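Complex record, two chains
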Amino acid sequence: MVSKTEETQLNRLENQVDNGGGGAWDYLCLVRKLKVRRSEKVFKYGLSILNDPKKRSALGPEEWTLYEQVAIAAMDCQCLDVTKDCIKVLQKKFPESKRVGRLNGMLLEAKGSWAEAEKAYSSLLEDNSLDQVIHKRRVAMAKAQGNISKAIELLNKYLEIFMADHDAWRELADIYVSLQMYKQAAFCYEELILSQPTVPLYHLAYADVLYTLGGLENLQTAKKYYASTIDLTGGKNTRALFGICLCTSAIAQVSKGRNKEDKESPELQSLAATALEKDYKQRAADKLGLLTSALRSLKI
Amino acid sequence: MGLGFIFGVFGVLFLFHAAYSTIQYRGLLKIMEEEFSGPPMNVVLELLLGFVFCVSAALTVPGNFLSIHPDSEENRIVSLPANLDFMIFNHRAKALPLEIDMKLKH
C-alpha cells in the first residue's frame, strides 16, 4: 500500500535521480519496498550502479538483490542480453538456488518460449509443489498467452489452497472485470474487503462493480461503499465523490416510478458536489465550468 | 532540542536531590526516634517539579510525533502496489525500443 507520504518521497527521489542528484540506491530500495513497477528507471540506474565496481562493492551483500531487481526490470524493458548476464552472475554465486531457477523461467517467458518456460516451472514445482510464486507465474503465463479461461482455472485452484493471498484475489477480480463477469468480480472484492477492511481502494473498486451491475439494491450498496471510501481517504478521493453524485442520481432515476420512500436525503449528494467544486477550484480551475454543468445535469 | 535536553537534565537532578533529601530526612528522624510519615512539603514540591521537567523533556526531545489516523493527509493510501507476481512481459512496450543501449560490464 503506497501512502501519500511514500508517494511524494518516491516522486522526489525520482526527480532527484533524474536530474543527476545522486541517491539512486535509495530510489531503488524504495521502489523495491513499495513494489511499484518503474522498470525503465530501475534498469537505467541499477545498471549504472552495477557497472561501477566501486559502487558495487559499497553495496555489500545487497548486490545480489540488485542483480535480481535489474534482471526483472531488464526483462520488462526487453533487454534480454542484460538479463542473461545478470542471471549468469547470480547462478555463479548461488548455483542451486530456486530463486535463480525462477528467474530463468521468467527469462524464457519474456523470450516467448512458453513450452520451455512451462517445463522449467513444472520441474521447479516437482521439488516444492507449494511454491506460491511459481504457481502465480504459471497463471501469468496463461494470461500472457491469451488463454484467459486457463488463467482463471489455475488461479481458482491456487486460491483454494492459498486463500489468504490478496494479490491473487485482486488479480482474479481484474480478470473477471475484463471479461465483464461482474458478479464473480464482486465476490472477489468482497473477499478482499473482508481481509483488509482499511484499504479504501478495495471499497472503491467494489462500489464501481456494484454500480456497473445496476439495480436499486446494488446502487444503494454502491453508494454506501463510496461513502466508506470517502471516510477512509479523508475526502481526498475524487472518484468516490463523483461516485456518490452518480449513485444518487441513478437511484433517483430507478425509483422514479415507484412509490417514493424518500429515505434518501439529498444532503450527501450536495455535500459531495460542494467538495468536488472546492477540489476543482483548487487544482484545475479552468475545468470548473465543465464540472458545474455536469453536476447540474445529474441533479435532474 | 537543546532546551528540552537541558530541561531533562534538570528534571533528573531534581529527582535525585529529592531522593537524597528524603533519605537524609529519614536518617534524621531515626536519630530523633520519630515516625516517618512522609517527606517534608518542599521535597514533595521538588519531586513534582522534577517530574514535570522530565515529562516535558521526554515529549520534546525525540522530535515530531507521527500521525496515526489512516485518513490523515500523510497516511492515506494513494495506490495499491502493482501486482508484480503476475507481471507479464509481452506488453506493448516491446515495440518501443529503449533509447539507452546499456550492457552489463564484466
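Note: The first strand of chain B starts at residue 77 and ends at 79.
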